[in-house]
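Troubleshooting: if your tokenizer reports a length mismatch, compare your output against this known-good record of 252 residues.
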Amino acid sequence: MIASLIALPNLSLAESNYSDTEAAREASEYNAEQKRETIKDEIEAKKEALEQEMEQNREEIKNRVEERKEGLKNKIEERREELKQNLEQKREEIKNRVEERRQNTTDQITERVNKFISKIIERFSTAANRLDILVIRIESRIEKIEARDIDVTEANDLLVIAKTKIETAKTSISLIALPEIIDPAASTTASAIKEAFETTKTQIEQAKKDLKAAHAALVEVIKSLKPGDNKLREIENDESEDDSTATTTDDN
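Known-good structure output:
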């Protein structure tokens, strides 16, 4: 009987210790749940902020592209008008010179040569104009890639070189001159025109060479942008997948 009375307090003490342990465990679980909720809220807040930032970036890129398109349109129109004026001026020069010398056979040959050269100048000028348009498109692409913090230093450096070569080609085109027969006494012979044409022929070959070099330089710029384009597509694909996942989660 005495032994049983002595054992009873020990049993009560064990029950008390068990209750304290259970309470501590429940408190720990509650704290863990609170931390999980806090982390979840923080993740949601960061996700929302990131989505807002991405939307803002998309709007900025869209606006810049629209501005670039408008600028491209204006530049094309300006280039066309400039080319038209230059061609009209060249045609007028050719017309005046041909009218003055139409009386003999050499003048007829000169007319054909001048028309031929005029067509070459027109074709070369059109090619240079296309290179300018390509530069504008490449710049727009570079800006889009840069907006995603992708390194395009090499492309920018190559583009500077390409622009310089385009300007060199334009200068060469502008230097193409119509043949001039210096010796009037020889104006009745085809050999005089052939001799005068040699300088123009050299100028045409130089302009053609410079146009090819400018085009090749732009091709190098485009090649250098391929890694950046690939990274941009990966980013856009990841964003598309994230948006799809988020939409699916929201639907569930």
